[in-house]
Amino acid sequence: MRLDKYLCELGKGTRSEVKDLIKKKKVSVDGSIITDAGYQVNDNSEVMLDGEKLMYEEFRYYMLNKPAGVVSATEDNIDKTVIDLLEGENTRGLFLVGRLDKDTEGLLLITNDGDMSHRLLSPKKHVDKCYYVELVNKIDKESIARLTEGVDIGDDELTLPAKVEAISPTSVYLTITEGRYHQVKRMMLAVDNEVKFLKRVSFGPLELDKNLKPGEYRRLDDDEILMLQIKC
Ligand code: URA
User: Fold this and answer.
1) pLDDT higher than threshold 90 for residue 218
2) What is the model's pTM?
């Protein structure tokens, strides 16, 4: 890969900014100052910027506890986006693995790993997504049975079987394997109820880190990445 592209991908600046750094002799590769922006580097090259050794990573994975009021988009003209919350990170090439509604909180996975994202979102894979749901009305046994079997939310097909675990008369954990538009809200409307608060607590094998407050994020650790690669 070209040296300027490499530096851009590490978030060290725009193409013209990193070219400037290279011209100003701030970049060395394997111990030699390089002034050619097109110089070829590879995974084994030791690239230093201003004396700091740079580590190249092809893929980046972040777990965000999405707060309400922020949109699941990479860019938006009006609202703050989830990408805006990754302050100070190299956000080039990042995208969201699925979306949460503006008023939904919880686990959102953000990565530049397109293959993993496709696998996690593939309808054929039936990846579990668990939501903590607070409801306007009390939920009864019949509603739980209907949600468990599948309900008509106005699409061609009923929803696939879901798992429902009642926590209180007006709150449940709901685990679904699809990702239809406003699915949880529409499922609750289908059983004459309404979502008051919605938070995603897990996505496949990944659980929302309880230490993350709404708006906070962290990188996935190696075990979590491996788990996603193996199980999804
Ligand atoms: N279902 C919804 O209705 N909204 C979300 O944000 C996620 C799932």
Assistant:
1) yes
2) 0.86
